[in-house]
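Suppose you are handed a protein chain with no further information: no name, no annotation, nothing but its sequence. What can you learn? This example shows the usual starting point.
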Amino acid sequence: MSPIQISMNRDVLSAIDRLMASLCNVMEMPVDVNKRSLLSISRDVEVVIHRRARAVSCQGKNAKKMHKVKLKYHEAAVLEVLLRASSNTEVEPYNRFSFRSIADQLNQKLA
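A reasonable first move is to predict its three-dimensional structure. Written in structure tokens, the prediction is:
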């Protein structure tokens, strides 16, 4: 199966990077096997997003340019779940809207 590719601008990419870093730091190693696999996949997603965010931050200040991130199917599914859950608790309206739009984009590509 081919990787799922999503497009986002630099601000959204850095917001998702911060979100994933904070989520993975808060999560503990669970006893349940299903939760353990979810944590493992979310850490993989964090690595992919963080690498892309670092590469984009080194490129320059063009915030309007859309950057592509390639995720495996299971990584995209986990990212969608985490973004939907985080969009309800996000304080900043721009990030809340961005998280929902990226989750919708992922949902369409996963279907």
